[in-house]
């Protein structure tokens, strides 16, 4: 096989992730070349993502580059990858999950305010809804851009605090103070780097399989199946976390109304070899438990 061309968005986080994948491939004997591609998700920063009304805004340009053979693989944050993939594109490997949770980062010049009075800069439906569930009076500001841009906007004073994926902070080695947010369930597949490739590229896919982290694969498959079954192509405040402990998997999943008032969750432990269709089964349980009405309400108001 010739040099493996690695497509990536050109944000610092995306490039870090692409280099991580390059190192893994080099370790099993392949040459690599990193090909940065500007994505439309990075070009349109004036509107929050859910307002753009299309899924896959971060992945579409890399999908196109894969399909026209400009690149051999595309590296993504798995949480940004839609659950329905284009024809002939598949997730062929995931790297071991490092950190999965969201954390609170405060404006460093702000008073040490109590959580319930903080103005929070986040455009994520999930983060807003789960925060409102705890603190219904909270005010929010919209914020977009990569981690570094968002930190700068925070320091410029658009809000008292913002919420980040801890994985992003750690990967960028950012020197910021952060606090855990125990009531905020992570996005499905948060903290996981994924490699997409053409399904027809059999030889390459075998190589990719050999560098894939099996436990992370099992956990993210459940989380993404849960998401796909619940959302049915629409975005909604959905959290999911599958974790392996001694051959068992613990799964936490939740659906929340936009205003945080309605909340349906599931918390289950099962043997890892019984995980077939588990994400789907648990999502259906939530749908039959008031989730269907909640999803209809969310779709109407977006
Ligand atoms: N939504 C953007 C995004 N996509 C992936 C990460 C970080 C890495 C990850 O969580 O997988 C981030 C930043 C954030 O949510 O703070």
SSE blueprint and pairings:
Layout: E1 4-8, H1 12-27, E2 32-36, H2 40-43, H3 49-52, H4 60-67, E3 73-77, E4 89-94, E5 102-106, E6 120-121, H5 125-134, E7 140-141, H6 147-155, E8 161-165, H7 166-171, E9 179-180, E10 193-198, H8 202-211, H9 214-231, E11 238-245, E12 248-256, E13 263-271, H10 278-301
Parallel strand pairs: 1-2, 1-3, 6-7, 6-8
Antiparallel strand pairs: 3-10, 4-10, 5-8, 5-9, 11-12, 12-13
Helix pairs in contact: 9-10
The structure holds the ligand NCc1[nH]cc(CCC(=O)O)c1CC(=O)O.
Explain the overall architecture.
This protein has 302 residues and is an alpha/beta fold. It folds into three domains: 1-95 and 192-212, Periplasmic binding protein-like II (D-Maltodextrin-Binding Protein, domain 2, 3-Layer(aba) Sandwich); 102-180, 3-Layer(aba) Sandwich (D-Maltodextrin-Binding Protein, domain 2), CATH 3.40.190.10; 214-302, Double Stranded RNA Binding Domain, CATH 3.30.160.40. Helix content is 36%, strand content 23%. The strands form three sheets. A five-stranded mixed beta sheet has the order 2-1-3-10-4, with helices on both faces. A five-stranded mixed beta sheet has the order 7-6-8-5-9. The protein is globular and about 55 Å long. Residues 77, 79-80, 147, 164-165, 167-168, 190-192 line the site of the ligand NCc1[nH]cc(CCC(=O)O)c1CC(=O)O.
């Amino acid at each position: 096989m010739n040099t493996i061309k690695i497509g990536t968005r050109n944000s610092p986080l995306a490039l870090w992730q692409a280099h991580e994948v390059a190192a893994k491939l080099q370790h099993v004997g392949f040459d690599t070349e990193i090909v940065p591609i500007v994505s439309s998700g990075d070009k349109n920063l004036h509107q929050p993502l859910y307002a753009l009304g299309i899924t896959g805004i971060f992945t579409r340009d890399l999908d196109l580059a894969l399909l026209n053979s400009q690149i051999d693989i595309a590296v993504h944050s798995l949480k940004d990858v839609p659950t329905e993939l284009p024809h002939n594109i598949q997730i062929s490997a995931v790297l071991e999950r490092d950190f999965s949770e969201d954390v609170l980062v405060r404006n460093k010049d702000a008073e040490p305010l109590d959580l319930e009075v903080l103005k929070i800069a986040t455009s994520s439906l999930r983060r807003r809804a789960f925060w409102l569930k705890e603190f219904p009076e909270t005010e929010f500001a919209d914020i977009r851009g990569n981690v570094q841009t968002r930190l700068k906007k925070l320091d410029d004073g658009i809000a008292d605090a913002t919420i980040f994926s801890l994985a992003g902070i750690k990967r960028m080695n950012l020197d910021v103070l952060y606090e855990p947010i125990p009531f905020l369930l992570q996005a499905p597949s948060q903290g996981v780097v994924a490699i997409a490739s053409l399904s027809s590229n059999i030889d390459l896919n075998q190589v990719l399989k050999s560098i894939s982290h099996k436990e992370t694969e099992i956990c993210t498959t459940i989380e993404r199946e849960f998401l796909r079954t619940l959302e049915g192509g629409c975005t909604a405040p959905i959290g999911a976390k599958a974790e392996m402990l001694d051959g068992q998997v613990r799964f936490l999943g939740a659906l929340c109304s936009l205003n945080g008032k309605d909340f349906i969750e599931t918390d289950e432990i099962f043997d890892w070899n019984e995980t077939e269709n588990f994400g789907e089964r648990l999502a259906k349980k939530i749908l039959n438990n008031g989730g269907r009405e909640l999803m209809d309400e969310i779709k109407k108001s977006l």
